[in-house]
Amino acid sequence: MALLVDAYNVLHVTGVLPPDLAGLGVLELRDLILSSRFRHMPVVLVCDGLGPGVRGADEASTFIEQGVTIHYAGTHRDADTHIERAVRACTDPHRLNVVSSDRRIVRAARRRRCRIIGSDVFLETLESDWRRAGR
User: Fold this and answer.
1) pLDDT of 2-27, one tens digit each?
2) Backbone phi and psi for residue 66, each to the nearest 5 degrees, phi listed first
3) Pick from 49, 68, 72, 109: CA 20 to 30 A from residue 60's CA?
4) Which of 59, 84, 88 is nearest to 72 (CA)?
5) DSSP three-state, residue 73
6) Helices and strands, counts by H and E, the chain
7) For 109, phi and psi rounded to 5 degrees?
8) pTM of the prediction?
9) Which phi and psi (to 5°) does residue 8 adopt?
């Protein structure tokens, strides 16, 4: 199983996380995933825009942070297009968990019969795992 996350779609969900977890950034989302039931899966977080420290370039960039791949689409592409391509390219889509509530991404994942996890459900799961771990 692998986890492909529409990071900003997840990070912009409101009303799910308690105040002590609200306002997460990409790295905090990565940390929550690494302390959850998803920690043993290969994880790819896909974000719009430029990655940290990238200046003046419009190219996509990819970083691996604590075993989690973080992909920034660049200034001339969007995360949704990257996610759709990754879903289409997946050789075993039944084992791919796609996290997003974006209709376009959900539709692409459904066509390939990937497992779809809504952003709000995903956050609720992360929060539950975080609480269960006694944090």
Assistant:
1) 999 999 999 999 999 888 888 899 99
2) 50, 40
3) 109
4) 59
5) coil
6) 5, 6
7) -70, -40
8) 0.92
9) -70, -30
